[in-house]
Amino acid sequence: MNRPRTSRAAEALAAAALLVLTAACGSRLPESDFGHDDRASAPAREPIRVGIVASATSPVGGGALTGPRDGAKAWFDRLNTRGGIDGRRVEVHTCDDGGSGVGNNECVHRLIDEEKVVALVATTALDYAGASRVSRAGVPDVGGQPIGAAYDTYPHLYGIHGSDAPRNGTPGWDGMLYGGTEVYRYFKREHGARTAAVVSYNQSASAAYARLVRRGLKAEGYKVVTEQVDFALPNFRAVAADLKQQGADLVFDAIDANGNARLCRAMDDAGVRVTAKVTNVQNWTSAVAEDYKDAPHCRNALWATGSSRDYEDTAHPAVRAFRDATKDLETHSQWQLEGWAAARWFTDAATSCARTGITRACVDGYVGRARDYTAGGLLLPVSFERSPEPPSTSRTCLSVARWRDSGGWVAQGDMNRTCFEVPQLAYEP
């Protein structure tokens, strides 16, 4: 039986966007969501130490990579008010690696060797230079964001979207990763899109990702319009004029957040109306209203795709728990929800180990055996079944939302049923 698999393409998009940016340099939660301990009056026991590495002060700008950290901390804070895990508090040690490889290695050393954390959770590192050290130490890294190829390279590292790669020290399969075309298939099947534009900078990381997007679009039969702008002096007005002339249905991009806002403003000024201006999980935030305040038409054509349930879908109990616990945050984002899901994943693992001992090896064993894990319905099914051969096709599901000024991000259908059998295209990380 085919099961839904998560997509490498969405992860690649987030990584490419970050590389481009670098160059630019409450209410009670349901008790079932937390481990509950009736022995609150028992003597305090040694806490369970976990580490969170986030590139909080990095070349991409403050706040760009802190969402998963904030979501994970919110989970652990609320968990501790419920008695922790088996009566033990979870003690969270955070480390800002500054977005550099040197800083990342320092964080890894401090957390693993000095703080003696049992696991890393929700890692969001621009340059995960310490990944091999984490792996050699046998420290499970639970639910990290796949910026770069580390989670498809090393054992004991478990990305939030899963992996079928051998993870034997070489990225993917002999140095190649694979991404599906499900996003392009979705807009073709569900919205009749036929012409897609890809906007990039004349910068290596941006151009490389744009080539991958074009390959996927062409594999799905789209007419592809290529738009490249100068990185230092981008002429988005010229791009918008050409988009209108070409009659583009969709616009994809490999540019930074500021560039996207300027592109949208130019599209509005030129009267460009598209079916969708497609963005990724990194930009799936409540800040859209402010970031795109000068482009109301383009703003209301924004769509995001990913591998987790829309953080606005409060009809779902697991999302409602997240929103209740984070109601005091200034903004909300999909990455916050994924950090919350990563912390829940660690909690499930540690709870299963409580009787025999919450050790690195036990937590690692639980997470490594994951088969279709969903964090209570927050994630598309996540697994780590190592495949000796790369996939040629895969049944892949995706979460889709669109921005509406009247309701924020609105989920489009059931992510567990929005699935397609699509080709998997090879690319170098």
TrEMBL record:
<dbReference type="Pfam" id="PF13458">
    <property type="entry name" value="Peripla_BP_6"/>
</dbReference>
<keyword id="KW-0732">Signal</keyword>
<feature type="domain" description="Leucine-binding protein">
    <location>
        <begin position="47"/>
        <end position="363"/>
    </location>
</feature>
<protein>
    <submittedName>
        <fullName>ABC transporter substrate-binding protein</fullName>
    </submittedName>
</protein>
<feature type="signal peptide">
    <location>
        <begin position="1"/>
        <end position="23"/>
    </location>
</feature>
<dbReference type="InterPro" id="IPR028082">
    <property type="entry name" value="Peripla_BP_I"/>
</dbReference>
<dbReference type="InterPro" id="IPR028081">
    <property type="entry name" value="Leu-bd"/>
</dbReference>
<comment type="similarity">
    <text>Belongs to the leucine-binding protein family.</text>
</comment>
